[in-house]
Amino acid sequence: MTMLDRAAQLAAEQLDGQQPFSLDQFALNGHAETMEAKMQEDKFILGRLAILGQSTVFYAKPNAGKTLLTVWLLIEAIKAGEIEPTHVFYVNADDNHKGLAFKLRLAEQYGFRMLAPGYNGFEAKMLPSYLGSMVHDDQAMGKILVLDTVKKFTDLMSKGKSSAFSEVVRQFVMHGGSVIMLAHVNKHRDEEQRVVYSGTSDLVDDCDCAYTLDLVTEEMGRRTAKFENLKNRGDVALEAVYEYDASEGLSYRERLESIRPVSDAERHQAEKRRMMADRLERNREAVDAIKSCLRDGICKKTELIVEAKSRAVVSRQKIERALKEHTGSSPSSHEYWHLEVADKNAHIYKLNWGGG
């Protein structure tokens, strides 16, 4: 007996003595007015990164600031009257006791609900059941659920489990709820040096909106972090950049109070600084070898490339790239030498003042 035959047999047994099976029993026709009355306007709930009535995922590496920024955005939305704090349920499943206690104090101050596995009978493994009950009892409408982090509630490496969990979230969202999920990225970046989300693609495939969060710069204890959109439904921001103080010794509240949005001009400057820093790190061996050669008076291009290659034990291509990328007049921009064209078109390199 095929699976199709068995399914038909089971359906016949269940409907013995009843009308023939039909999908008509599941049709929503006639409920349009009721559903329209429950429709929510497109309303932002975390800056311009998440919309009420959608599921959103933030992917970031540890210590990039995903929890800090999420909590700050949540509090800012509450202070602005954009969301009802008693409708927000922050599930803190990735913290120690001290961290939980402080965030609980914030929750009490601003009126949102703080939940944690192991307290008051809450169990992470029961979350799908809890959400199912809210859907069944028509209690999902307007509720905002933050899951920190989502790996505590499902196995992101399992396609089957991730897909099943995403279906539970989708049912909650379809009945008017909102879900914000925090998740991690892989250890290794892609070819363009961007962070890559961890786990199977199911969470991204099934959510409404997804972002990666990455550090753009970290200078003098201050970090600049950028949300970059991977997927969207609605007029959410494609990018959003924030700066915060990550200096040692600061309290969590002091870090929260240090957060500020970064303008486009500031963001471009921060990204430029990061690009230059990344370039220097990539070329460091070659740069050190070229500097050493120039200090020893080896400055003609051909001889310089040959000797620098010998001293750095790197490829000729890397020496030539470093020589080109760090030529200029601004040591603060990692331009350590400049080029002069002498007689017979000889290319002579000289160290900049302060570049050696």
TrEMBL record:
It comes from the Bacteria. Gene3D superfamilies: P-loop containing nucleotide triphosphate hydrolases. InterPro entries: P-loop_NTPase (IPR027417). This is Uncharacterized protein. It comes from Billgrantia montanilacus. The lineage of its organism: Bacteria, Pseudomonadati, Pseudomonadota, Gammaproteobacteria, Oceanospirillales.
